Fold these 2 entries.
Entry 1:
Amino acid sequence: MSAPTDLTAAQAVDALGRGELSAGELFAAYRERAAADDLNAFAWVADETPARGAVEGPLRGVPIAVKDLFCTEGVPSQAGSRILEGYRPPYTATAVERLLGAGATLLAKTNQDEFAMGSSNENCAFGPVLNPWSRECVPGGSSGGSAAAVAAGLAPWAIGTDTGGSNRQPAALCGIVGLKPTYGAVSRYGMIAFASSLDQAGPLTRDVTDAALLLRHMVGRDPCDSTSLAFPEEIATPTAERLDGIRLGVPEELSGEAEGIEPGVQEAFERTLRTAEELGATVETTRLRHAEHGLSAYYVLAPAEASSNLARYDGVRYGLRAGKANDLVSLYTRTRHEGFGPEVKRRIMLGTFALSSGYYDAYYARAQKVRTKIAQDFATAFERFDFIVTPTAPTVAFGLGTKVADPLAMYLNDYCTVPMSLAGLPAISIPNGLAVPPQGGQVGLPTGFQIAGPAFSENAILDAAHALEGAIGFDAGGGRA
Amino acid sequence: MSYEPVIGLEIHVQLATRTKMFCGCALTFGEPPNTRTCPVCLGLPGALPVANAAAIHFGLMIGEALGCRLAPRSIFHRKNYFYPDLPKGYQISQYDEPLCLGGQLGDVRIHRVHLEEDAAKLVHASSSGRIHESRASVVDFNRGGTPLAEMVSEPDLRSAEQAREWLTLRCAVTPTSRCAARAPPSWAPRPS
Amino acid sequence: MIDREQVLHVARLARLELDDQEVARMVGELSDVLDHIERIGELDLEGVAPTSHVVEVANALRQDEPRASLPPEVALGAAPEVEAQGFSVPSPQA
């Protein structure tokens, strides 16, 4: 038998069920790997025995890595921020609670961009995470620690959060599967808020089957989250091997080199479209007329919500408090000066500006209308197509430090993922090949293929992704080296 | 030149629910500080509010009693400002879509009635007991998140005396509520 | 575009202390981003309803039933400064 850490999570569940493997043995094997992590993927790793979780239940004790953004009782939950350094919350997020209740064990908390703001994991107070395919490159973000850990085999699977692409983009850059569910499918209770109307938790896994298994135990209505919804059906194990009769729409606005997609990424995308046709799908180009404005709307709405959500970090009840503040205003301003990193400050400034008197209508109110148009574009497209497909990210993993000085260039990495977030739609990224970046390089780096569907079409998306995954036959070995 | 006072009142009516506006913490009085708090009313990272059905019911009953138009759709907004008694950095209140609009109480027209959460209690500590001499304050979140109905009158009152009379004699909403004016109970709706 | 005065004003609203270097950088970076964002000004959005939220969930309410509160030592457990079982802050009048 191969090493237990070579198994996918679903395979591990089966092996545990057959008694070929014990939960303690599996946990120990992963704990050892996690403790030796040299990618800086983890913010915290469990002691020898799992702090939380039981081996009872359908997940049979399979360990899980959890993004630092989720509150976990008694375990550091720092959102990648100095302002929450060492913070141990008195309660656990619903999504994590459900997984532990289903028999997952808490292996580690993963590093991330501070408060999930970033596309490279370089905005982490505890240092950048490295891409296991190439340590000079970023893993993507904001769920970069989760993605790198899964790609490198330091954890069987992980959960992350996706506000504008934070699961899908790092999944693409690390050669794994990342899913953003329909907004409302997974409870946000206990997930440290970035942009409340967009934030959604989801799985990061080695394959599509694992993504389905993990999602099955995350979804559902939570009385503690007023915007959570009952998922209309059980998340099934995907089995499709063909795409007969499936209609794929390729939006002109979100593909092609003219839209800033790297040639290697575009090539991999077109190759996957041909694979889809070979599996029986039809592929047609279409328009999402307002999608090109998605990024603009997103970078008004998400920072606006963030500026309000992050007002609570004031040095009074928890977290960092700046010393030597003799009055209230300097307690606030100095605590927030010391506690927040540059990107968080930038977004708070952007959001506060967009909501401020005199600018609200030109920015915030307008962005909300663009959001309506984008959702309408998708609704129209789904009258003709089962799925909208795009490259997940316009680029492969880029070099550490290459975009830090240019926030706008960094933001453009979310170009293809943000429209689905604004419309609240489910979308998955699956690895679909390797590409060498335009500036050259020794090795090919992973590219991602994004499949988006109507609200609550997760089962159909997972099935289509499963069929493509089988036909693509992506070799994830480069991340495990 | 003589001036005529033109007075409108904004009255905070505390609703007599068992729990807070957005969390399940019990509303009781005189408890030791910070014994009625939870992740929601402390504004902990990740916590989310869920509105109290009884508070909304009471708010609608007040609107009905005042002859207001009850909103077919009503939503909450965030009122953002920084203060230590406001744990989230914003108060959840209502802005352009309040629960009740219009209405009348005696000679005074009612502009609107909306729901919001109360702030926490700031206790100013100093040896002399004088606020302006105190260096530090402590925050007690027991009261934070108490449901309030804010009744806003039109500026129909013309003297302080008239305002006082209207407030104490006519504005008697309790015991759905504990009125800020401590008015005697005049009607007692029962939640159904 | 955003100028230095606006940056300082917004920083005050957001209760953020920025040093001189940060202010200078913020002026440049925010201007770049705002220039990009301002393209939505060209769209015809007459009569379009705003979307604040994609799911319309009505009446997601909670029954008025008390639940256990946190023990005070837990509520205060992460506080940087505690006094008299309360969260200590500089007096607003100080």
Note: The longest strand of chain B covers residues 108-117.
Entry 2:
Amino acid sequence: MQWKTADYAGWGRVHKAHGELARPERAADLARIMEDTPAPALGMRRSYNDSLLNDGGRAIDMTRMDKILSFDAATGVVEVEAGVQLGELLRLFAPKGWLPAVVPGTGFPTVGGAIAHDIHGKNHHALGSFGQHVTSVTLLQPGGKRVTASPGRNKALFRATMGGIGQTGVILSAKLQMISTPGTGMRVKETRVGDFDEFLDLLDNSRFDYNVGWIDGTAKGSNLGRGILEEAELTTGVEARKGPSLPVPIDLPGFALSAPTVRLFNAAYWRKVPARGRTHVMPIASHVFPLDKLHDWNRLYGKRGFHQFQCVVPVDAAPVLKDIVGRIAHSGLCSPLAVIKRMGPGRAGMLSFPMEGYTLAIDFPARDKAVRLIHELEAMTIEAGGRLYLGKDALATGDTIKAMYPEWQDWAAEAARADPDGVLITDMVRRLELRG
Amino acid sequence: MTQTWIILGATSSMARAYAREMAEAGATLVLAARDIDEARRMVPDLTARGAAEASAMRFDARDPSTFGPIVDRVEAEPGEINVAVFVGSMPSQAEIDADPGLIERVTLDNFTGPAQFLARVMPVMEARASGTVVGVSSVAGDRGRIGNYVYGAAKAGFSTYLSGLRNRLTRAGGHVVTVKPGFTDTSMTWGVEGMFLVASPEKVARDIARAVKKRRNVIYTPGFWWVIMTIIKLVPERIFKKLSI
């Protein structure tokens, strides 16, 4: 197997790595690598941070291990290799009446990455996290050992693998229980929301399967926390189109997303939805993957990259979340991308992010001021009894994260059993000292 | 009419992409490959994508005994029989210089092996008075260069063979498309130095499918390689021999 020396980065492009990458295309090649030169896996590099990096070491690019290994049209169970992209599963199976139970805000992530971060989507309050719909996973561990884990078999290994940031082995394949859909469309209802309290009220009482709120992170005073609530449900009647996606051809200069531009954009975006609200019907992908129409949108933030801060806080800590939104509004650092959502309790693994409560995700261009602000927001999250997301956090310390994830020691023990020599350790695991 | 495609070298990066393209068009696929386990793994992937049927068969360009069973298998299929040849190997010129025995193997993998297979399947295609052969050659076959002239010579031989085969199959109502990809992002080129304007296997596969539909004779993919190779072919030999491109 050939190794190629490459520079690569997470989606936020703040952390970078220089190292050797292999990109196997055949199961036999992947097995040989795990036997002779085991290394951590990476996929489409949509994690924002250093969770996929192994600076100075080796990593396995799994994007060509992307086959569908079986599909049962009666039950909706599909077995896939880890490199299959979630958007591809949606494209192939929605016309047959099935779709992945959980998808994030982009269709590019792989099944392997979705498992490694136990991702959530707009339907988390209804269906829980990605790992809760994985019925079994087959791992290749360092030395070439092949192990299958499921909620009923090798239980601890399964719980250490869902959200387990790749430390229990490279995923060879996974079985997913998809959900049935009446068609390939979504009916989306948009509602203008005046302030933070109204937002939480609407999120708490939403009866739709999918919901998410866009929040104007620049609005202050009586407008604090205003935004647009999008509620959606699956429906029939629209054909998915394979529209072209527009590339962002260059790294934009730093002022492109400066405070005045963002304020103007946000105000106009908020007014775009009429005060009485509106309803559209659109292809599923257009609603669930809104940013995929703009390829490489991370270049909007310029060469220095950006951070995405995402926290979840318990329901009763809503006042702290309001303070967090206020603190962001006064900083003048917010970008147009800010999202709020009500989460249910669903989580599949020891290091899974979700908890019953509210989650907030906001992008900041990577500047010193933003880093200081994010550290403040981390402290407020701790005060709220909440947690940070390992698919996004790029700045926290090990102590902060360990306090938020009470099961981390059980997880570390499982990781040590699967990978005693620590060959799967990544930059993030090193930064947070998660493997001790 | 039902369409059957024999994909030779089915587990290669370009072949996979082309097989998926044909699967979405509803074709019957015969995946012929040395790594039969991997070819078998491809079967459910292709049926999930719309293939009428897919099956895996062992094929080794260096072992003619693997040819007959594949020809027999497609003879039993109704309708149009098509063949896409994606087999090939590209050891570095340095490896070949160290072991001249490789010259014979490179020729076998890129030219004489697939040519022998095609010779056997030709009567079936002629009898049905239809079908297309896609032969994946290379821009490297357009002119011998210091970096890979053994591989280039084998591909040049294959291109010339395909040209003759087109002459033959056209008379029977069939067609041959010669495909000359430029640098493509495959497992064969992963980590190879000095590549530029690299195309994805999916782009190459789409170009091939379009060329088959339009009955093109020779295509460069991506198309701009036609310009590059026209210029390279125009450089006089007395200058070319001093270049290292």
Note: The two ends of chain B are 46 Å apart (CA to CA).
